[in-house]
């Protein structure tokens, strides 16, 4: 008896059982909602800090960080749709088909934007060290054009096809096809072959290839920094103490390496599980309830990792940049001072007498 016959026999005698229970639903929401709230607040604050700071806006790299924060902010905003899709809306998506399509379209759109940004960011860091004169010729206008191009290309590759291929409908849980194990808001089965080809080509080009290139660029950056320091030491002569200028250079280089390392670590944490799951879930059938449970947990875990990595990004930006930390502190101080002034003003107004009493 082949696998299809086994599944059909099993489904004829055993009623369908969801791959989760009430405890797992609660756990999914408990994990995802704090990540959602923190991701929205942290990325929004980072955007405001950079946009309102003259010092931070002077850096071309910070334009890419703002764009990354916008991408992570959009992803955080649609996180409740994923939580509903994986829990109460798993069997029957009660919300509109439009919201289902928007979840998938925005999710893949921002994912492709993020991977492209990380690769561009690493490339620019390498260029700034290897060919500093060429890097200095890259203006803010060039950066804006690159960022806009990334968003437009990612929209065409991610948003458009997923708005067509995905949607909400009840799935046949007795079917041997892969969609029998998926939530009701997912890929329409008639597009399965196209999606398989898409994951093979686009996920390779937009996830696995950037991961490989970013790692190679990071190694190249580390080697270049080491070589620059060695050359500067030779020019100064052996045995001389570091000057204040040299210390500043080293601190800046250390910040470059730390910032890049943290961004890459976050990127790997979020997108390696995501890419692996997409390849797995469309190619491996679920013949038993245990298989469906594994698929559910795998899909939930990769999404938790993706959202967690987006929460780490604003933290990493502040860890790696002293200027960013200072500007973030200044923003919070201004907010606290404004809030205190408003409270004090209201207190004075409420306590002032409306009439004179002897």
3D architecture notes:
- The protein has 358 residues and is mainly α.
- Strands 1-2 form a two-stranded antiparallel sheet.
- The protein is globular and about 80 Å long.
- The N terminus is likely disordered.
What is this structure's SSE topology?
Elements: H1 3-13, H2 22-52, H3 54-57, H4 60-77, H5 79-86, H6 97-130, H7 132-136, H8 140-165, E1 166-168, E2 185-187, H9 192-236, H10 244-281, H11 289-320, H12 322-351
Antiparallel strand pairs: 1-2
**Fraction in beta strands:** under 5%
SSE succession? HHHHHHHHEEHHHH
Uncertain regions: pLDDT < 50 for 5+ in a row? 1-13
Average pLDDT, rounded to a whole number, is 85
* DSSP summary: helix tally: 12
Highlighted features:
single chain; 358 residues; mainly alpha; two-stranded antiparallel ribbon; 12 helices; 79% helix; disordered N terminus
Give a brief outline of the structure.
With 358 residues, this protein is mainly α.
